Amino acid sequence: MDNARGFRLRKSLLFLFVLLASCDSSSSKKQIKNLYYDPRLFFDLDSEVNRVPCAIQGKIPSWLSGTLLRNGPAKFHVGDQQVSYFDGLAMLHAFDFSSDQVLYTNRFIRSEQYYIMMDKKSVNFSGFSQDPCPKLFKEQTRFIPQDMKGIENADVSIQEYADQMVALTEVPLPVLFDTGTLDTLGALHYNDTIPQGQWESAHPLHDPAAGESVNYFVRFSEKCSYVIWRMADHQSARQVIAEIPVQLPAYMHSFALTERYVVLVEFPFVVNPLDLMLNKKAFILNYKWIPDRGTHFYVVERSTGKVAATIKGDPFFAFHHVNAFDQGDKIFIDVVTYLNPDLIESIAVRSTPPMKVEKSQITKMERFTIDISAQKLSRETIFPQILEMPRVAANRTASEYRYCYAHKPLTLQEQAGLHKIDVATKTSLSWAEDGCVPGEPIFVPRPRAEDEDDGAVLSLVLDYTNKRSFLLILDAKKFTEIARAEAPHAIPIGIHGYWKGI
Ligand SMILES: [Fe+2]
Predict the structure, then answer these.
(1) Helix, strand, coil content of the chain in percent (nearest 5)
(2) For residue 218, what are the β-bridge partners?
(3) Residue 138 — very low, low, confident or very high, per pLDDT cuts 50/70/90?
(4) How far apart are CA 177 and CA 184, in angstroms?
(5) What local confidence, expressed as pLDDT, does residue 79 receive?
(6) In 3D, which of 299, 313, 210, 315 has the Cα closest to residue 261?
(7) Residue 468 C-alpha to ligand 1 middle, in angstroms?
(8) CA of 235 to the centre of ligand 1 (A)
(9) CA angle, 261 as apex, 259 and 266 as ends, to 5°?
């Protein structure tokens, strides 16, 4: 039997199989019971508040005008049921600096999952690492308000598309929200006819020089592909840059963008699409680590969509690219690397304390240099300490840059903190405070700044010792505190954010 016929046969059996299997979620419920939460860092935040003035320590820079938006899971439990960290209910937070006060607002995204957990008191829904059980999911969506049907639990990141703010997770439909009230407005429907994939990166990159955003999605089918797209600023119509066929798609949380290229760094953490349909496992648990495959760098020309090079390197895994740029025949790609993807399972399934340093949690920042004409790849360490959530100045995306700001996770051995990394000199500055875990640091430039690091770094800090949160404002040059704005409640550790300037 050839592959195509085999696929069709399996597909025809699949529907019956899924119907029979979809309501038996006992195995995944067993997994969920064993999930570990560090209650200091991950807890339910049920209250929503609107424009509450924050107590200020220090002096907020007078030029800082705009809103820091944050996204992340903030509810994990219903009764004695719980979801994994990745599938906690998305909550948006806003720190508004547009007046002489700092005003704080927070609101859950009104997703289908929100209504299931809050109204139905159930955790039976599909998620990143949550029981898929599609039939049950369909049955339980009947009570969801009509205008919120199809809204996903977009708990990962925030982006600006078509002059509107959207929350994103790793499914294709962005969730629109109001920047002032944080109310969920519905799904953003693109003004194009591109057949959508089933998975999409929550890390689109905005290239300020080209005036466009670039992202990629995975189309799972008999013939899978990575589809890379662009969308001009102020527009909601995408154009396909390239479609790359792939047999076993990899989990690539983010990608690299330079002035001339898009580079997909394909780690050997791959899925057989049939497993996604046939296995009764949550989405991410179908992926397999196959280090012998190595890591493939697909270098795609932005102007033509042509694959200029496919270069194989050693196996490694990453969630986040720091930045990338090209010069002549060379492409420089900076990545926070892991030895393997074990951390995903550690967070999603196992009862392992997430803050315990294991091999799987040790990261470093590395630079991969691709010489296109020689078709060669080299690798060097830029920053050897543990880091995550790297950010660079937004106006340096896809171009040469010098400074990276990153979060330092809490471990059993060391307290959490923040790094400022000088990529040119390979030196760093740090900030830390006892009992505190800062989140992703976001750089805000001073108006008309000339130096890349002339501005402020904002980070939402959880002071788990005193059960409170505050927005930390650092001088980006010296990496020292200027001020802090106290939130009215403790906020669980979130994921990504966005600075929306005025
Ligand atoms: Fe991310």
Answers:
(1) 15, 40, 45
(2) 199, 226
(3) very low
(4) 5
(5) 85
(6) 299
(7) 24
(8) 24
(9) 135
Write the DSSP string, 96-145: E-SSSS-EEEEEE---HHHHHHHTS----S--SSS---HHHHHHTTTTS-
Residue range 14-70, pLDDT digits in tens: 322 222 223 333 333 333 334 456 788 889 999 999 999 999 999 999 999 999 999
Question: Going by C-beta distance under 8 Å and a sequence separation of 6 or more, which residues neighbour residue 241?
Answer: 214, 228, 229, 230, 262, 300, 302, 305
Q: What's the gap in Å between 195 CA and the centre of ligand 1?
A: 25
State phi, psi for 23 to the nearest 5 degrees: -95, 0
Find the 483 Cα to ligand 1 centroid distance in Å.
27
Range in 98-112, 126-140, 238-252, 338-352 the model is least confident about: 126-140
Domain boundaries, the chain: 3-501
Strand partners, 242: 228
User: Distance, CA 199 to ligand 1 centroid (Å)?
Assistant: 14
DSSP 60-73: --TT--EEEEEEEE
- Residue 432 C-alpha to ligand 1 middle, in angstroms? 22
| 140: pLDDT strictly greater than 50 | no
β-strand partners of 126: none
Distance 496 CA to ligand 1 centre (A): 7
Distance 55 CA to ligand 1 centre (A): 30
Q: What is the pLDDT of residue 442?
A: 98
What's the 472 CA to ligand 1 centre distance in angstroms?
21
| 320 CA from centroid of ligand 1 (Å) | 6
pTM of the model: 0.89
Q: Assign residue 211 a region: left if phi > 0, alpha if psi is -120 to 50, beta otherwise?
A: left
Give the pLDDT band (50/70/90) at residue 137: very low
* Residue 354 Cα to ligand 1 middle (Å): 17
Distance from the CA of 72 to the center of ligand 1, in angstroms? 11
Query: 444: CA distance to ligand 1 center in Å?
Result: 19
Q: How far is the CA of 198 from the centre of ligand 1 (A)?
A: 18
Class of domain 3-501: mainly beta
Average pLDDT of every residue of the chain: 87
Distance 18 CA to ligand 1 centre (A): 31
Q: How far does residue 342's CA lie from ligand 1's centre (Å)?
A: 16
Q: How far is the CA of 154 from the centre of ligand 1 (A)?
A: 12
Over residues 363-378, the pLDDT tens digits come to 999 999 999 999 999 9
* Eight-state DSSP code of residue 446: P
Cα 66 from Cα 98, distance rounded (Å): 5
**Residue 146 above 80 pLDDT?**
no
Among 6-10, 131-135, 166-170, the range of highest mean pLDDT: 166-170
87 CA to centre of ligand 1 in angstroms? 14
* Alpha carbon of 481 to ligand 1 centroid (Å): 26
